[in-house]
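User: I'm curious whether this sequence folds into something compact or stays loose and floppy. Could you predict its structure so I can see for myself?
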Amino acid sequence: MTAPSRPFSEWGQVFGDEVLATVILDRLLHHLDVISINGPSYRLKNRLAAIERETDVA
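Assistant: Here's the prediction. I'll summarize afterward.
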């Protein structure tokens, strides 16, 4: 299973340094538009369905 996405506010904890996280985000997001998508993950839904099918076969 994949790790969940982290909001930008938690990147300092991920990198262990708030300044480093701010610099990285600044470089990544400089010319981008961020689109936040909320709701169920189709990738996770499909993966859970595959696991369920594997369990039924075994």
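Summary: The chain has three helices and no strands. The helical segments are 11-15, 18-29, 42-57.
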